[in-house]
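To illustrate the input format used throughout this study, we show a single complete record. The first block contains the structure-token representation of the backbone; no residue identities are included at this stage. The design step must infer an amino acid for every position from geometry alone.
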């Protein structure tokens, strides 16, 4: 009898460590440095499940346990503790894997180098007391991110780049505002689910993602969720934004390179914290040059635009989006801007579409911060006299579009082709780069060249 009792106890303990499929609520692939891929799963269980890779079980490890982070002071009004209900689990996906599954989720394991790259940015539903800005989160016309994510997934991308600003629900919906009534707010799991994981589900299941950190993911805002869910580096408590005393350690992350193929790579840059960042950025821009070495084509990707235009404001019709980024780049390069092999720059932060081409010394630039969050105004189709330069370099091409949208980026000849779609998947513009300039046509005007 005693041996049977021991078997019973052993058997129950064994069962308790198995995570049921139903506990896995989200699973996705994160691109990290080089060619590496990280599988992540968000699980309603203290234990992590196994990932099934080509039929073999590979245990996921706890990246960040579930728990509650005490309320921290915020700039935009009310605050409360951030509750993270789900355990974040992860493991590196072995090179050469053909299939991978976590619970009910088949992960989008790439079969070849990415050719079709979807780019989105600034996607969450704005609820911000200090600006009295409350986007109707329950209205898919006013906050179309879920529809846009389905349209982008229908493009069958091989890779998705999100240029930052995922989380926007910082303040409670005011009483009597039906359009956002019932929405979660604050920095915990429920808002991340509502702003990103639920609406983005089809796109998270379509391809691996490159996650870029936006200013909404700084430590003073949604940085805790950024480090738990999206940052490509290992999670450590001292660099988690959980304790404000450690914010300086988590304010910046080193740039890293994501290989696209033997020819091209992305350089991913954390611009989220702009205050007092001049020296840090100058050092990191020098790292960008090292990361780009050896590539034929390199794409600089950051949330804040370096050579981009911001919206009119305070009596200034047109302004440079981030003077700090521009001066830091020039400080790192003795007054110069990007140089070969960096032949394209992708950004967000400004909630519209911009395509900018330059004379010698510039880099073709796209601003793609129009994928769901509340619009903030528009730029004129024709720039006024005097707005033809950014820093030391002159603009020679400028296209803008004010509606919601996403982009599809592909290599084309010696440059890049970027197609801008509306949130329903209708192509609006086709742009061809030829560094340092570019040219855009309305979609359908000219067949895209190959
Ligand atoms: Fe932003």
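Output of the design step:
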């Amino acid at each position: 009898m005693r041996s049977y009792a021991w078997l019973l106890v052993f058997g129950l303990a064994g069962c308790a460590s198995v995570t049921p499929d139903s506990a896995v609520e989200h699973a996705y692939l994160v691109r990290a440095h080089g060619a590496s891929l990280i599988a992540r799963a968000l699980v309603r269980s203290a234990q992590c499940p196994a990932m099934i890779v080509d039929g073999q079980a590979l245990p996921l490890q706890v990246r960040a346990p579930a728990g509650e982070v005490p309320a921290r002071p915020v700039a935009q009004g009310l605050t409360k503790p951030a509750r993270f209900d789900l355990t974040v689990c992860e493991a590196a996906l072995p090179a050469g894997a053909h299939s991978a599954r976590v619970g009910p989720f088949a992960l989008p394991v790439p079969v070849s180098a990415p050719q079709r790259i979807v780019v989105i940015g600034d996607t969450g539903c704005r609820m911000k007391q200090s600006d009295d800005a409350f986007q109707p989160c329950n209205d898919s016309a006013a906050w179309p991110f879920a529809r846009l994510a389905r349209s982008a997934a229908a493009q069958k991308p091989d890779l998705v780049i999100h240029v930052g600003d995922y989380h926007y629900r910082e303040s409670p919906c005011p009483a009597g505002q039906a359009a956002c009534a019932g929405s979660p707010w604050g920095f915990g799991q429920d808002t991340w689910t509502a702003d990103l994981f639920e609406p983005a589900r089809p796109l998270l299941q379509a391809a691996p993602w490159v996650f870029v950190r936006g200013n909404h993911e700084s430590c003073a805002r949604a940085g805790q969720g950024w480090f738990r869910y999206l940052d490509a580096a290992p999670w450590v408590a001292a660099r988690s934004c959980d304790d404000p005393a450690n914010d300086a350690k988590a304010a910046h992350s080193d740039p890293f390179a994501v290989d696209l193929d033997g020819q091209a790579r992305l350089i991913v840059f954390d611009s989220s914290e702009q205050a007092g960042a001049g020296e840090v950025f100058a050092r990191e821009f020098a790292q960008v040059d090292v990361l780009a070495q050896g590539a034929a084509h390199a794409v600089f990707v950051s949330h804040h635009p370096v050579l981009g235009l911001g919206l009119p404001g305070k009596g200034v019709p047109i302004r440079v989006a981030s003077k700090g980024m521009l001066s830091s780049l020039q400080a790192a390069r003795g007054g110069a801007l990007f140089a070969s092999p960096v032949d394209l720059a992708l950004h967000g932060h400004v909630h519209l579409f911009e395509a900018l081409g330059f004379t010698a010394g510039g880099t073709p630039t796209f601003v793609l911060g129009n994928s769901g969050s509340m619009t903030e105004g528009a730029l004129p189709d024709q720039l006024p006299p005097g707005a033809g330069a950014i820093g030391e370099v002159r603009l020679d091409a400028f296209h803008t579009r004010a509606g919601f949208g996403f982009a599809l980026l592909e290599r084309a000849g010696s440059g890049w082709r970027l197609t801008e779609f509306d949130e329903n998947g209708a192509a609006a513009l086709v742009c061809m780069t030829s560094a340092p300039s570019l040219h855009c046509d309305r979609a359908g005007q000219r067949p895209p060249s190959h």
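Structural context for interpreting the output: The two ends are 76 Å apart (CA to CA). The pocket of fe (ii) ion is lined by residues 165, 214-216, 303, 349 (CB under 6 Å).
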